[in-house]
Amino acid sequence: MERIDTLRQPSSPAAKAASAPLVFADLSITDDERGDHDTVVVSEAIRQGAQGRQHSGAESQEGRVVKGPPSHDVSVMQPFSNYVGSIERLARTVVSAGLGDLTAEATPVLNGGPGEALRKAVDLVTRKSTGAFFSSSDLSDELVSTLAKPINEDSRILDPACGSGDLLLACSRHLPIAASLVDTLESWGQQLYGLDLYPEFIRATRARLVLAAALRGRWNATQGLAESESWFPGIRVGDGLAIPKDLAQATHVVLNPPFNLIQTPQDVEWSSGQVSAAAVFLNHVFVACKDETNVVAILPDVLRSGTRYGRWRENISQQATVRRVSIWGTFDPWADVDVFLFEALIRSGSFETSMAAWTGPKETEVTATLSTVAKVSVGSLVPHRHSNRGRWHPYLHALGLAKWGTVKVVDLPKKRFNGTVFAPPFVVVRRTSRPGDSGRAIGTVILGDRPVAVENHLMVVKPKDATLDTCLQILDLLRSDATDRWLDHRIRCRHLTVSALNDLPWQAD
């Protein structure tokens, strides 16, 4: 496999160790790394809110653009710097004096400590606007546990949105250690690479990797450890949406991208308007990196299950062999977003991965679906756009609607509306839905002889035979435990989609 030889240092850190003083300034950031435009290119997408490691925990699974500090202002993470300084000092002590009795102090730094410190130091609005949520050790380890190309001494691993280094730490646990700390850091420094916009995060990543090596090797004091830029020179301040050519030669890419909504770049053909930055990030990795690169990523479930990302999934499937799409669940308690684990091998040529790879066998085995017997659509009355013009119609909204019951048109309030209306009988389903809830698709049968204006927070399931009997069968289907389980697999966003209900397996009595 190809090495990233352009990142090797001209002189060996081991050769410097005999004469160089112990300096952990190597974990701080040079003036150039802080934002010199000759060395760091910040893309327009990043300026609009895509940078960071993780996700706005706002209402949408795609994330929302949360008002807060400008996303490209690297100073917003300065309050986190005090914690970073403390782990740099700890690393310095462990290196110069040996591990001793510092295991209890060092272990939390490698297992969730940075995330906890960030939550204390940086307010929630800033963390949401910058997407600063770090991966847990369990999630990181699971992501890299079953790689198609196992990590070995020839691997070159890139995290283009590395945050505080959780994914790189998980990868380091698969790397061997050498006879000494110096030799281990030299070896790891030739294999681990990362980019992030925030200098504090880069410093934290470097310090944590030094601690990880020291804890694994448990060497005695290492005097004269060489200064900074010799250690992990490929982990540096930079833009993950402008991957440098030297880093693009990686054998593996590990990625936990931001989930913020950003404007679709002009050269993207699979969407327009605002899209999840995670989709843009992964697409850029596929364009920038070489064939046979093993890519693994933590992604928002909307990319797996959302209707508007169908073309994105097709685009990815045409560029790679998709090997793994596995549901994880909620990212963490502070980012209310469900995620899945993705793995692929970048490929070029005329081929296409089956789209079933995104959904799994549960859907491919189905012969009849809800769309066989009914038409599913979204209510057409949008309250904040409602002009209050047109004919008077019975009006149906989600508030106070009887669950699993029957509502008669004559009992509904009325509104003027000149859009699409729906003739009973039909079933309405609440769009709001959380994975794990009992009743993922709560329905109500609507009866009467007048067309109804339906609010867009409801979905309309209109039986093709226009009979009450089919409506009741649909209600029974929606209420079943099997439907809850199926939807928990099919879509883990906080709202249902037309395509998800259309694909719901149908079994007639």
3D structure, described in words:
The strands form four sheets. The chain has a seven-stranded mixed beta sheet with strand order 3-2-1-4-7-9-8, with helices on both faces. The chain has helices at residues 13-17, 44-50, 81-97, 103-109, 113-121, 124-130, 137-143, 166-172, 181-189, 199-217, 277-288, 301-305, 310-319, 356-359, 361-364, 370-373, 468-479, 481-490, 498-502, and strands spanning 157-159, 192-196, 235-237, 252-255, 261-263, 274-276, 294-300, 320-332, 335-346, 374-378, 391-396, 406-408, 414-417, 426-430, 443-447, 453-454, 458-463. It folds into two domains: 5-359, 3-Layer(aba) Sandwich (Rossmann fold), CATH 3.40.50.150; 365-502, Adenine-n6-DNA-methyltransferase Taqi, Chain A, domain 2 (Adenine-n6-DNA-methyltransferase TaqI, Chain A, domain 2, Alpha-Beta Complex), CATH 3.90.220. It has 19 helices and 17 strands. The protein is elongated and about 85 Å long. β2, α10 (199-217) and β3 form a beta-alpha-beta unit. The protein is of the alpha/beta class and 509 residues long. The N and C termini lie far apart (58 Å). 31% of the residues lie in helices and 17% in strands.
